[in-house]
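Supplementary Methods. Inverse-folding protocol.

Structures were first reduced to a discrete structure-token string of length 525. This string, shown here, constituted the complete conditioning input.
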């Protein structure tokens, strides 16, 4: 098949949600419908349950599973679908943000009863940064839920995106009768079945008497009224607005009961974007270019403690990737021949000969790759869009076993390359500071340093509010700032200047006193 045909049949996306809204259930059902698995329950949840925050064996077990489920590829109706898994636990949200740089679109799952939750808002903010097209799936309609119009309003307001329902629910909870597919004028009656796919009933239009027969007069009348109102409020669905990231089509269903999932999948395949151009510092790279390029968005290390094994996950951005071909690693300015690249099909991992834009290739690595690295056929390219966000929690990391200093340094270095947390080095006292999003990350670092590198660490608390990357056109002023704030200056892992503000007030004062200095809260600016 030609490059063009391969690109046009690929859909690479992520499913994201606030924990417990149903991301894992929906992923599993899509795999079930796509024929990638045959029974529900075959894909194990890789989420770390909230109750298990200190259960390290559980974390290790999950890490093993999460390699297998990191990318779930399957063939469906001529399409190659790649679902990229994201960690459910909010302490690992940076990992999710990075995965979002490797997808062409996103499905956001919302719990119908809970509406938009905090993590949904954060995830949407990341999608908005790159204009990633988003579809909303309102899940758990089998449970009593908010009024549909109110819910849509809430989504628009809190997620800051226009919505357009493409299906409409008939009641919710115990009275839930099904959804009407506005797009296809068909009625899907709710039949709770965990393993089966509900069949749709085609009706000619809303006045078709079949509607009454199936849902009763009252609900048929309400549906007609609501849809009339809907057509008055919402303009017709324009796929371009969706592809530009300005409008989110909304579907309703119940992932647990296989309901509304088929429609979601079919509509998704119809409208979701194929691999999109990707910006590098040098230029925008088009997927249809003949030469291969790709970037590392995730590294999974030391799954087997007996082998120092790492897998770098590379998203193919352009051209055809071929096994055993020589590619250039831009940052190291070195060439590599990749002899055993792997692809991920459902929960299987297999060696592949080739891959196309949109695909994810697993590359066995001995420490040459860090997140954000670019591979190409010789052209110097640096793909953008791998921002680190200012962490929310900070601790000094200290060596607790002086005999194992080297191991500790190597461990910290590799874990940071993997993106487990962020490292800053104080320019005042030389101490290393770890920045995290959640407490669980510190626990994972301590555990992994001990079990994978044989090193012991100790964390010490530190008064810190935010890390801001700073820059200024006036070098003299920048120097003056650094002198004035010498106790609070640090370098990140790439050697960039970071101001570690100890409180919101101090930060505000610094911004006021040094108006010409730009303070950035993500590492990419
Ligand atoms: P997450 O990945 O977003 O964190 O959510 P997950 O799919 O694990 O779902 C969270 C809980 O919600 C699970 O129940 C799951 O069975 C339930 N659930 C998912 N979709 C639906 C739905 O459409 N309707 C209803 N009623 N429930 C749904 P749990 O008890 O936490 O886990 P489990 O023991 O069932 O696995």
């Amino acid at each position: 098949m030609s490059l063009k045909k391969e690109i046009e049949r690929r859909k690479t996306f992520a499913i994201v949600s606030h924990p417990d809204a149903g991301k894992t259930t929906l992923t599993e059902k899509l795999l079930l419908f796509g024929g990638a698995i045959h029974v529900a329950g075959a894909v194990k949840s890789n989420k770390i349950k909230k109750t298990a925050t200190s259960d390290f064996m559980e974390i290790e077990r999950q890490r093993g599973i999460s390699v297998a489920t990191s990318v779930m590829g399957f063939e469906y109706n001529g399409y190659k679908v790649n679902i990229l898994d994201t960690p459910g636990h909010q302490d690992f949200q940076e990992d999710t943000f990075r995965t979002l740089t490797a997808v062409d679109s996103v499905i956001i799952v919302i719990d119908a009863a809970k509406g938009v939750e905090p993590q949904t808002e954060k995830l949407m903010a990341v999608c908005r940064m790159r204009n990633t097209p988003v579809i909303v799936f309102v899940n758990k309609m089998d449970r009593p839920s908010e009024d549909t119009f109110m819910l849509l309003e809430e989504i628009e307001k809190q997620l800051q995106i226009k919505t357009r329902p493409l299906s409409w629910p008939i009641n919710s909870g115990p009275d839930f009768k099904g959804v009407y597919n506005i797009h296809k004028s068909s009625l899907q009656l709710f039949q709770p079945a965990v393993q089966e796919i509900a069949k749709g009933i085609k009706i000619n239009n809303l006045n078709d008497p079949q509607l009454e027969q199936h849902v009763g007069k009252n609900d048929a009348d309400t549906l007609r009224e609501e849809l009339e109102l809907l057509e008055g409020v919402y303009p017709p669905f324009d796929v371009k607005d969706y592809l530009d990231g300005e409008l989110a089509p909304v579907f309703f269903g119940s992932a647990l009961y296989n309901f509304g999932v088929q429609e979601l999948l079919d509509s998704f395949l119809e409208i979701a974007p194929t691999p999109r151009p990707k910006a590098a510092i040098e230029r925008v790279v088009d997927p249809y270019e003949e030469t291969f390029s790709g970037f590392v968005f995730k590294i999974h290390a030391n799954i087997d403690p007996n082998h120092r094994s790492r897998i770098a996950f590379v998203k193919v951005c352009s051209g055809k990737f071929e096994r055993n071909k020589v590619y250039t690693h831009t940052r190291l300015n070195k060439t590599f021949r990749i002899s055993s690249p792997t692809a991920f099909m459902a929960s299987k991992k297999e060696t592949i000969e080739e891959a196309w834009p949109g695909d994810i290739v697993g590359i066995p690595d001995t420490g040459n790759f860090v997140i954000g690295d670019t591979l190409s056929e010789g052209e110097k390219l640096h793909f953008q869009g791998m921002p680190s966000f200012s962490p929310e929690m900070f601790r000094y990391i200290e060596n607790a076993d002086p005999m194992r200093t080297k191991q500790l340094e190597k461990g910290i270095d590799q874990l940071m390359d993997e993106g487990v947390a962020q490292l800053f080095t104080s320019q005042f006292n030389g101490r290393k500071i770890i920045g995290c999003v959640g407490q669980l990350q510190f626990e994972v670092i301590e555990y992994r340093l001990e079990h994978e590198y044989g090193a012991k660490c100790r964390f010490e608390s530190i008064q810190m509010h935010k890390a801001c990357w700073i820059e200024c056109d006036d070098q003299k002023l920048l120097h003056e700032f650094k002198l004035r704030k010498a106790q609070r200056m640090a370098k990140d892992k790439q050697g960039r200047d970071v101001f570690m503000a100890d409180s919101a007030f101090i930060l505000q004062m610094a911004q006021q006193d040094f108006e010409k200095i730009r303070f950035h809260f993500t590492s990419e600016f």
